[in-house]
Amino acid sequence: MNKERIIIVGAGPCGLAAAIRCKEAGLDPLIIEKENIVSAIFHYPTHQTFFSAANKLEIGDVPFYSTNHKPRRNEALVYYREVVQRMGLRIHTYEEVERIQKQENGQFRLHTVDRSKAHNEYEAAYVIVATGYYNNPNHLGIHGEEKPHVFHYFKEAHPFYGQRVLVIGGRNSAVDTAMELQKAGANVTVVYRGNDYSTSIKPWILPEFRGLVNKEDIDLYFETEVVEIHDTHVNVLTNGVKKNNKRLCLCDDGLSPDHSFLTSSGVAIESDTGRPVYNKETFETNVDNLFIAGVIAAGNHANEIFIESGRFHGLHIVDSIIEREKRGR
Fold first, then answer.
1. β pairing state of 224-229 and 218-221
2. CA distance linking residue 226 with residue 224, whole number of Å
3. pTM for the model
4. Radius of gyration of the chain measured on its C-alpha atoms
C-alpha cells in the first residue's frame, strides 16, 4: 500500500496549480494522471490559439512568455512542462484512478491501473479531483454516429482539404472548427439546432464567421438536426423537412462531465445543473476531505470555468486543508 498525505487526480493546469500550492504550504502531493500532463491541451487542434492572454494561464508564479498576446497550443505545452520540471512535482503519468473509497478510519483508498495493466492501491488523507472534461464528448445518439468518417474531436484541417464536411453544432468550438476547415480548402456546411447565432461564440470570432456565411464561403443552417449518418450521405431535418448531404461529419455538440467517477466516490450531483455538491469557499464536496478543482466544478456549464479562473481553486483548497490540520482534524 502506497501511503500519501494528499493525492491529486488529474495533471491539467488546475491540478498542477493545486499541487504547487500544496508544495508552497510544505506539503508534497502526488498527482496521478491517466495520460500525460495537460492532456486536454495536447488534444486541442494542432494550431489552436487560446482565448486568454499568456499571463492568464500562468501558475506557480512562473512567467509564460509567448510570441503573441494569446499563446498557441504548442507554447502552452512547453510552458506547463517547464512548470512541472521547475517545481519538481511528483506525477505518475499513464496511470488511471478507477475508484476512490472512503475507509472507516477516514482515509481514502484509491485503486489505479497503469499502462502495463498493473493494479495499484494508494491511501491518502485528502483527495483533490481535477479531472476536467475533455474525454467526454456529448453524443448525438443517432444511427451511424459510430462510423469511421464521423469525428468527435477536431485535430487539424489538412486531411479535409477538398472534402465536403458537415460540422454539427453552433457554439464557439464548432464555429472555430468550421473556419479552420474553410481556410484549408474544405467545402463546409454547419448545422445547428438553435435559431440564431449562439451566445457562446466569442465576440471577436463572430464577425469573421458571419462574414464567411454571408459570402457563402460557409453554408449555415439554423433549426437543423442530423437524424441519420450513412456511408455516402447524411440525413438532416430543417424545419421538419428532410434533406441529405454527401459529407464527412465533425460532431461538436459540446462536452459533459463523467458523473460516475464522482458518484461512485459518494459525491452528490445537483440534478438540474450537473454540478457536484461542494462548498463554494473551500471546494470540499459533501464527502469530507474530498475536494474538486477546475472545470469539473462547473457541472453541465463548462463555459463557466476556464484555466484563468480554475487555477486559483487550489489556493482555497489548500488553505482549508492547512486550517483543519491545525485543528487536528
1. unpaired
2. 7
3. 0.84
4. 22
